[in-house]
Design brief:
This protein has 374 residues and is of the alpha/beta class. It is 43% helix and 16% strand. It is built from 14 helices and twelve strands. The strands form two sheets. Strands 4, 5, 6, 7, 8, 9, 10, 11 and 12 form a nine-stranded mixed beta sheet that branches. The longest helix has 22 residues.
């Protein structure tokens, strides 16, 4: 079975930016919800689906798939997916080992695994050695939004708990520390120990700011402190992890096994967060998970975009023994609309997909509704 074509469709939920994190507020990283849907078709008509993180670079990631990866993969035998990953990485080595190129590789790799599972008639996590078990989910929310106060935040989190989730992560770093502490404190006072709270600074703090904030979060019983400082400073993150009792989580903004190797080997993180649609696909995320396991660290997958990316990370989580996985419940038709019923949860736990490959069923209606043309 050979690859006949690699195609990609640009999808944008809306041009409206209705929620913001600290990096958007302080770093100008503003972007609408965008997803690149990748499709790999074989010469016998089988189609595999993947997703690439775009984050404001939708056209660039699309070009990387269509103009760089697609031509080199046409006619290639669909044998070892890891071999094809290495081929894409080596061939694009000079173009960049982070960012746009790795995002493009991620989407293609996910689609290749989807094809492999369909060909062999098994879910991807089974091919990776995993078993069909449930996995705890946590919900990310608490984004900054005009007119959204503490009362609205409390009700938002209450809604997550009503749906069965008892662990949430909220955004920090976009306001003065004293204001963010009020937000975390309000949740603790409202829900007590029935709610586990984590925080995410999206890389905006300096070392000293993160140290001060981390000590305050410790007093409030926060379970982990995500991406406190820029990913480019693993040595500083290691110092921070050593100075604080609160676990440091990150860094989803790292790319490939090689960048995670530096974070893990330097003990810059206590919790490893990778994302199949971002870090290099299922192939590379699984490698990152094995690395984390060798150092005694848990892999807790990151998630923030379309449904296919979440399902891909879920398969890796099931194969590597992840204790927990991130999810969102904010309105996003590119989540359920692309994944279909491959995303199922009960009482705050995600069920393993049952169909071969990823198990996703993208909606043609959703694709046409949110397709970016031109």
């Amino acid at each position: 079975m050979r690859i006949r074509d690699v195609d990609a469709i640009m999808l944008r939920l809306s041009d409206e930016i209705y929620e913001r994190d600290a990096l958007a507020i302080k770093g100008g990283a503003e972007h609408p919800m965008e997803v690149l849907l990748v499709m790999v078709e074989t010469d016998d008509g089988l189609v595999g689906y993947g997703e690439s993180i775009s984050y404001g670079g939708l056209y660039a990631v699309h070009a990387a798939v269509k103009r760089v990866l697609s031509p080199m993969l046409r006619g290639v035998e669909l044998g070892g997916v890891a071999d094809i990953w290495d081929r894409m990485y080596r061939a694009s080595f000079r173009l960049g080992r982070r960012g746009v190129m790795i995002s493009a590789i991620s989407g293609v790799d996910i689609a290749l695994w989807d094809l492999l599972g369909k060909e062999l008639g098994a879910p991807i996590y089974r091919l990776l050695g995993g078993s069909p078990k449930k996995i705890k989910g946590y919900i990310t929310g608490g984004y900054y939004k005009e007119g959204k106060g503490i009362g609205e935040l409390v009700e938002e989190v209450r809604g997550y708990m009503v749906q069965g989730f008892r662990t949430v992560k909220i955004k920090v770093g976009g306001l003065e520390l004293s204001e963010d502490l009020k937000r975390v404190r309000a949740l603790r006072e409202e829900f007590g120990e029935s709610l586990e709270i984590a925080v995410d600074a999206n890389n905006v703090y300096s070392f000293n700011e993160a140290l001060r904030a981390g000590r305050e979060f410790e007093r409030l019983g926060v379970i982990f402190f995500e991406e406190p400082i820029p990913t480019d400073h693993p040595d500083l993150s290691a110092e921070l992890a050593k100075a604080l009792e609160i676990p440091i989580a990150g860094y989803e903004t790292a790319y490939t096994l090689y960048e995670f190797r530096d974070l893990v080997a330097r003990r810059a993180v206590d919790i490893v967060q990778a994302d199949a649609a971002w870090s290099g696909g299922i192939t590379e995320m699984h490698r990152i998970g094995v690395l984390a396991r060798a150092y005694g660290l848990p892999l807790v997958p990151h998630y923030s975009a379309g449904g296919i990316g979440f399902v891909a990370s879920l398969h890796v989580a099931l194969s590597i023994g992840s204790p927990m996985i991130e999810y969102h419940l904010r309105p996003n038709k590119l989540r359920e609309g692309l994944a279909g019923d491959a995303i199922k949860y009960q009482s705050g736990e995600f069920l393993p997909p049952s169909r071969p490959g990823l198990g996703v069923r993208p909606s043609e209606k959703v694709i046409e509704e949110y397709r970016v043309r031109g």
